[in-house]
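queue> pop job 88
queue> type: inverse folding (structure -> sequence)
queue> payload:
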């Protein structure tokens, strides 16, 4: 059976159904929210939850457990992008040739995210000739979770600069941040070798060596126009995909709530940076219905076939602040898909129904 490439995806779960109607009443789906809770209760070892309301934890489960982030790690890239904008190290209105971003695009490895962004950019007339503004590249990373956009942004922002945000936010647990697209090439079976041998050799790699190998591949993608064509999708079996997923950058729900709490409170970053944070992580606020209910609403999530992660921060018009981080690992693809369908109703219930909070004391 031909293996299915499992993407690092952004979950477009910010469009709460009740807000699409412009109303905050009568649109909750408690049965689906309960299904999400029941899954967590039955699978606590595979879940991590940390939810705060006005700086008080209202739900916590394995909040200090290190878990793969998938595309949620792109929050740190968005933060570095915003900081460099504030310091005038980059100009968000400068144009980037699409061919520079395309160097990092590997077809069929991101669930169609990059193509969806390009389609959106064309429809919104963000593309001028063969170029697009830098801020639109960043929005493609956060709104659509284009891995190619992420890799390009990492190349201009600097991996060490992105990593420095781990210290800025005083995160207690966060593994190395490395090129996500570059890491895919680690899973190509060498000639006269086998999948089993490759699995064993990758398992033996230290985190430092793994990140260095991913970076070496990133350099080749950037500088060698022929390297991208060497990727063989058929080599990327389900076993290899699982190992790749397990070795993604990892952190904890508590640490990521700590990050977005600072964003929610407009702390730690330069004041000018929050304008760009609004363009990238808080794009749901472009929806009129969201502006009627929230002062701030930011989100980022991700998945593989084995991982589902989602982070939200919000401030309601009445001043109530909430931060939510929910991570799952070691899922089956079927479980991931099911949880994805329940996640939005669960988050809506948490945000708008205080009586529901008694159900999430795991």
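queue> result:
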């Amino acid at each position: 059976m031909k293996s299915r490439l499992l993407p690092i995806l952004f979950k477009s779960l910010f469009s709460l159904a009740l807000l699409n109607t412009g109303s905050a009443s009568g649109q909750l789906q408690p049965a689906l929210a309960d299904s999400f809770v029941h899954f967590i209760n039955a699978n606590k070892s595979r879940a991590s939850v940390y939810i705060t309301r006005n700086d008080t934890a209202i739900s916590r489960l394995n909040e200090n457990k290190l878990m793969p982030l998938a595309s949620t790690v792109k929050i740190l890239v968005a933060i570095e992008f915003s900081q460099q904008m504030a310091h005038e190290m980059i100009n968000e209105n400068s144009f980037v040739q699409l061919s520079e971003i395309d160097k990092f695009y590997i077809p069929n490895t991101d669930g169609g995210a990059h193509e969806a962004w390009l389609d959106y950019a064309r429809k919104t007339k963000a593309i001028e000739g063969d170029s697009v503004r830098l801020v639109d590249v960043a929005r493609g990373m956060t709104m659509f979770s284009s891995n190619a956009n992420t890799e390009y942004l990492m190349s201009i922002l600097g991996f060490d600069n992105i990593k420095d945000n781990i210290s800025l936010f005083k995160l207690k647990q966060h593994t190395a941040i490395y090129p996500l697209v570059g890491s895919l090439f680690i899973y190509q079976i060498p000639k006269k070798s086998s999948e089993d041998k490759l699995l064993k050799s990758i398992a033996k790699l230290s985190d430092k060596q793994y990140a260095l190998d991913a970076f070496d591949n990133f350099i080749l993608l950037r500088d060698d126009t022929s390297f991208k064509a060497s990727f063989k999708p058929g080599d990327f079996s389900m076993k290899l995909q699982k190992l790749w997923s397990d070795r993604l950058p990892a952190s904890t729900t508590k640490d990521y709530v700590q990050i977005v709490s600072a964003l929610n409170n407009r702390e730690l970053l330069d004041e000018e940076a929050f304008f760009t944070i609004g363009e990238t992580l808080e794009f749901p606020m472009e929806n009129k219905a969201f502006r009627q209910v929230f002062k701030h609403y930011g989100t980022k999530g991700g998945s593989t076939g084995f991982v589902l992660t989602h982070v939200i921060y919000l401030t309601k018009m009445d001043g109530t602040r909430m931060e939510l981080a929910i991570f799952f690992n070691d899922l089956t693809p079927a479980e991931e898909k099911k949880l994805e369908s329940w996640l939005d109703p669960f988050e809506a219930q948490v945000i708008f129904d205080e009586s529901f909070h008694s159900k999430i004391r795991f």
